[in-house]
Predict the structure of Membrane protein.
Amino acid sequence: MMKTSAMILTALCFAAPLAVQASCESVKADISQKIINNGVPESGFTLDIVPNDQANQAGGQVVGHCENDTQKIVYKRSGNDSDVNVPSDAGTTQDAPAS
């Protein structure tokens, strides 16, 4: 019984980071789809998952967060247009700029 519990605990320790990453990836995919639905071509932007303390240095606009708000999702417009404005409904309400 003790060996079984130890094996289950070990398996959970390895699986937990994968579940957390999947969560960030799913948030990123949802935001990406909203941006595309607002008429921005998929090749016209990037979304990066960065630690909170690196969000300001990422060079874009924070449009989401994940992993219990320890990671930020940063939007960067690509191409000739240097504007980093993202459609207002692309991110979460917590990430929307103050009016």
About this structure: The longest helix spans residues 2-37. The longest strand covers residues 45-51.
